[in-house]
Amino acid sequence: MRPAAATNASVLIMASLSGGPSHGWAIMNDVLAICGVRLGPGTLYAAISDLEARGLIEALATEGRRRPYRLTDPGQAALLAQLQVLQGVVTACADRLDRKAPS
Question: What is the pLDDT of residues 74-94, one digit of tens each?
Answer without folding.
Answer: 999 999 999 999 999 999 999
